[in-house]
Design a protein that fits this description.
- The chain is α+β, with helices and mostly antiparallel strands and 235 residues long.
- The chain folds into two domains: 77 residues, Helix Hairpins, CATH 1.10.287; 106 residues, Fusion Protein Consisting Of Minor Coat Protein, Glycine Rich Linker, Tola, And A His Tag, Chain: A, Domain 2, CATH 3.30.1150.
- It contains three helices and eight strands, in the order H-H-E-E-E-E-E-H-E-E-E.
- Strands 1, 2, 4, 5, 7 and 8 form a six-stranded mixed β-sheet that branches. The protein has a two-stranded antiparallel sheet with strand order 3-6.
Length: 235
């Protein structure tokens, strides 16, 4: 999958017989770094979904175990009540408590089953128009239309201070209409100065003004909502 940071690369024609220039090699390095970071973000998102499924399955199994325990306790109390009629009041209280525990466990089990089913459907269901999806081989990423005209406004750091330099990657939530709904810093500058933090925030704000062709299915018939990276090369 091609990453959006590659959109920032400026193609420089090469003279016949010459190898790649230093600028092209740097651009290639930035492209590879963007692809790596984008893959990390996707793996993290997929991992979170897998963790949710695992947690739901564990909660379901625990609820089943609780329900079985409550049913066993109820059966024991019924047997004890049948054999010992003298202690009726206490046994009835215990029986009522066991019934409530069993009902609570069954309700929790039903809730966990519903959550587990919803998560399973989220993983396996075919996405519809406007659904939020992860970028996969079956999804064509959103394409920025005005990225070359969007420039982060970075304030001067002073007469004797250098402007922050490096690559800033912003994760943007792109609607099925190509509009940016939200933006978050995905990869900041290595510099820890206040100027670097201000530059990162400027990139986050600039990303909100990018207009996209939305992400689609491979045949282009269905448009989706996606989180996607946008890179800014600060020179």
């Amino acid at each position: 999958m091609r990453m959006l940071l590659a959109l920032l690369m400026i193609a420089v024609p090469l003279s016949a017989g010459r190898g790649p220039t230093m600028a092209q090699m740097k651009a290639q390095v930035r492209k590879l770094a963007s692809e790596r970071d984008d893959l990390k973000a996707k793996l993290a998102a997929f991992g979170n979904l897998q963790e949710q499924l695992a947690a739901a399955t564990q909660a379901r199994d625990q609820a089943k175990a609780d329900a079985q325990t409550a049913q066993q306790q109820l059966a024991q109390l019924k047997a004890t009540l049948k054999e010992n009629t003298s202690g009726g009041d206490l046994l009835l209280k215990n029986l009522e408590s066991a019934k409530k525990a069993a009902a609570s466990a069954e309700a929790e089990l039903a809730k966990v089953k519903a959550e587990n089913q919803a998560l399973s459907q989220q993983v396996s269901a075919t996405p519809k128009e406007g659904d939020l999806v992860m970028l996969t081989r079956d999804i064509v990423p959103a394409r920025p239309l005005n990225l070359h005209r969007v420039t982060p406004r970075i304030k001067s750091a002073g007469l004797f201070r250098r402007r922050p330099k490096g690559v800033v990657v912003v994760n943007v939530l792109i609607s099925e209409k190509g509009e940016v709904l939200d933006s978050r810093l995905l990869q900041g500058l290595p510099d820890s100065s206040p100027e670097a933090r201000a530059a990162e925030e400027a990139c986050v704000q600039a990303a909100k003004t990018v207009v996209f062709d939305p992400a689609t299915s491979k045949d282009g018939s269905t448009r989706f909502k996606v989180w996607q990276g946008v890179g800014f090369d600060l020179d």
